[in-house]
Amino acid sequence: MERRSFLKMSAAMGCAATVSACNPSTKTPTFSKPLQPTAAEVQHWSACLVNCGSNCPIKVFSRDGVITRIETDHETSDQYGDNHQIRCCTRGRSLRQRTYAPDRLRTPMKRIGATRSGEVDQFVAISWEQAYKEVGEKLNQIRADHGPASTYFHYRSGAYYGFAGYQVWQRLLNKTGGYLDHHWDYSWAQLYSAAEATFGDAGHAYYGSRLAEIANADLFIGVAFNPNEMRMSGSGEGYDFVQALNNHPGDIKVYMVDTRYTDSMLGKEHQWLPIRPGTDAALAEAVAFEMITSGWIDANSKAFLDKHCLGYDFASLASFKAEWAASDDAEQQRYAALIDPKENYKDYILGTHTGLARTPEWAAARCGISAAQIRELANAIMNAKAPYISIGAGVSRHANGDQAVRALYMLSILTGKLGQSGVNTGGMPMNYGLGVAGIDIGDNAVKATIPVFTFSEAIERGKEFTPYTHNLKGADTLDSNIKAIINVSGNAIVNQHSDINGTTAILADTSKCELIVVCDCWMTPSARYADYILPAATWLESDDLAGDSYASGQMGYMTMMSTGVKPLGEAKNMYDICSGLAKAMNCNDYTEGKTVADWNNELYAKTRANNPDIGLPATYDEATKQGVFRKYMPESFVVLQDWIEGKPDAYGVKTPSGKIEIYSLAMADKRANWQLQDYWSSEERQRFSAEQLAERYKITPLPQYVVTWDGYEDKETAAEFPLQLIGYHTKGRVHSSYDNVPWLREAVEDAVWMNPMDATARNLTPGETVRVWNDRGMTELPVRITPRIAPGVVAMGEGRWYKPGEDKDHKGRPVDVNGALNVLTKYHPTPIVKGNPQHTNRVQLAAKKEA
């Protein structure tokens, strides 16, 4: 595909992915069959394996081991639901450009110099033999000196291989003594926390009713729900969402609550509610106020709340407390002692004991949505027979994210309709998938895990981590700070982690973290802070098995990957890299005598046995010729349906009380026993009193709106930094993956979104280069002036690669010249899961010439 065709196709796909918005009467478009290989070409199947949630299959055409073009799936008819085509998006179609990007890593490299500077010229090329020997010796020495928990295997989302990806590294580390792992992730940590507190299982964050249930709903409410930009392939949730609305048998109203007017709207919505960042809980509480004070709950759902929920009103909570206090079970007695019945949800919403009722007027002053619109939303919920509510992960990436998600769950819970057809809890929709077998990674001798967001802190004071201070799991303490980091296909050491300036200062000191090994395909900002860089073959250069990932929608599929493409330079398959390291580390049973081909054949046989009904051929080699195998979901799914009906339910409620916990016993326990750490900056100490700081960082048993640092109500910070800043997922990247593809930079604009009112006040013009800054750093990029964002808020696409320029900010730090969002975000783990609050920021913005 040529550049001109790619750009034209990119523009067209924005319409094709959201057919109803472009022309409601337009039928699903037809696509021509792809060109066949020329006489000199060969065609193989591969997949796009980045972290968007869909591992879309792709066709790779090559000549003499070099990619000539990329095609998408055209193997079936495109009748939706009839094993339809799984067309990859612009990102997958740009894989030739990404594979041959100028910054592709081609040879092992070693850092020279006393510190990690982040400069490319601090590296020299070395042989694989030297890399194996030195990395192996250093890993063995560090573990001998500090214990296996001193080696941290870092978060990775840049490649989701079936076999020869990060799993082979886990196998290596387990077979050589173990390693420190993490729990949760950057995107969903607070979703998990909210789901655990409310339903007793983190899985409820993504165990929502399938999107197909929209057909049985008469109301859809999406909060930060944006699948048409995040999951925009032919297998993704965006396609399912559009089809569900297009094929709805009757009338359905759609309300979209989001700070930005996204491509998931584009005319599909009845109303867009442009909410201020971090105030979703205030909106939910005002809706609850209307449902309570109107008498609707007493008339319609009180019986459900009394039977299935804990903590709605004083009487039910007092009765539960008395029952458990009289129990012979010591654990029940302990929980009962934590309960104050005055902390029930109804009295909180009405302000019975505080004098602060959560009225629509109260909420409107905070969330920027008028009281009339809030009442309209409340009436829509009360009048709906089957409301489908879905909460996107963006809500959770705020300083009060788990509280906001818990508050939004209440919109579904208060209806009393959970378990009914067309109704959802608020969880992200469940997907249907076909899984592939993976390599046995063995058992990790280190049982401790840290919250993924806290790795940079664990470099400096990991030995201080406990379950009560840092949400350490699997152990009471750590034996060591992090002394070695292994990072595989991940860019979160620097680029995707908060406070880039602060993080790079920690990484620069080699006396703290003594070894950083990066195994990747490109010279990412994180790779620039490595001691050793090991160049991996891309998935287009690999034989492997790929499942459909975690958010591919309602089409299950798998791809049997093969390649006719030669790895660039000296790049190697990750299994072969780990085999070399294993030998250098005196690990003699790593390979079990098996090659890549042997493992693929073995894992394919297991995959075939696990999927007897999709027509998999007898051998892996035969399967690679067809490439992709698919099956549309055999049936829909309604979350909690069996549990409500009293049937066995693998996705049921698993809280301590056995009920849906409006008043969370687990959160009451954490409030009583956890020791919240001090992450306040010197600037924040000057702005706030001790009481204000405590109110901005707390744990509560009820789902409550919490005023936070850098939030809308943070007037003290707003005096200097008047704009709220959020990040968003752009169609031109998957997190930071693909940022080095020039075609995508042309096709998808990278700019800071700003409302015309805010731009006019600063005399800005569209496309003008601006600088955005706060206490943590400064970055520059063009400005996009658009009414598609709420006033007082600016938004930047997350994932742009950090690129420090020559200019310095007001604290003498380099100004990033590439629009890297995390120059501006704060390292401040959230109270409960110690998660990622990267959407909670305040900034100032001005034209570059004036900044």
* Count of beta strands: 28
Structural class, please?
alpha/beta
Q: Strand count, sense and closure of the main sheet?
A: 6 strands, mixed
Cα separation of the termini:
41 Å
Measured as a percent range, the helix fraction is 25-40%
Strand arrangement, major sheet: 5-4-16-15-14-6
Beta-strand residue fraction: 15-25%
Task: Quote the average pLDDT.
Answer: 94
The 3D shape can be described as globular
Radius of gyration: 26 Å
Low-confidence stretches: 15-29
Tally of helical runs: 31
Description:
This protein has 851 residues and is an alpha/beta fold. It is 31% helix and 15% strand. The chain is built from 31 helices and 28 strands. The strands form eight sheets. It has a six-stranded mixed sheet, covered by helices on one side. A hairpin with a 2-residue loop joins strand 2 and strand 3 (66-71). Helix 6 packs parallel to helix 22. The protein is globular, with a radius of gyration of 26 Å. The two termini are 41 Å apart. Mean pLDDT is 94; it is low at 15-29.
Briefly summarize what is shown:
The chain is an alpha/beta fold and about 850 residues long. It is about 30% helix and about 15% strand.
